[in-house]
């Protein structure tokens, strides 16, 4: 194995943590340089941001994005994503309060950790069989989000968030299982081979966080 990769699974979680950090750096950058007036239209930005994240998830899950590329591109993407998320996260911070947003973030971390541990304890490739079901769910989420732009139904919004949490939770099981399978199959030999896996896990994490915040917001109202 390439000297860069001594413990692929540990490295993936390390790079994932760095990616999430870059997202928050992007958020801080947005706070410093994006006018507060942008925050006031967060409700208008939300559907298009969610659609963008879903399309990105679809592209990555279907390997339309190359499977091996520099980790720097992942960091660049997550930094830009943090900037784009600034109005939405600011909206939630103002509407829900800092403590609730932090608790949602901690809850997402705990859920992610539990699901990753469950998948890691299983045999490599154990959850790969649910991939087609999850992908169909991902397409359904995209369509539901587009439909709700025109309908504006609170019920559909809640349904979307619940399904989103379930589907991306399933994808954590799937992605960790795939990573373990790729490691045991010898498909990960350099740092760049980890990039698509880190990107997938980042998208799982962020989508669950946004769905959880949206769910809390809907029930708070």
Folded structure, characterized:
It is a single chain. Helix 1 packs across helix 8, helix 3 runs antiparallel to helix 8 and helix 4 packs parallel to helix 8. The chain is built from 8 helices and no strands. Helix content is 81%, strand content 0%. The chain has one domain. The model has no long low-confidence stretch (mean pLDDT 90). It is mainly α and 221 residues long.
Quickly list its features.
8 helices; Inhibitor of apoptosis-promoting Bax1; 221 residues; membrane; transmembrane helix; Bax_inhibitor_1-related; transmembrane; mainly alpha; single chain
Q: Oligomerization state of this entry? A: single chain
Total individual domains: 1
The helix-and-strand class reads mainly alpha
The proportion of strand residues reads under 5%
Which overall shape is indicated by the principal axes computed on the Cα atoms?
Answer: globular
How many strand elements?
0
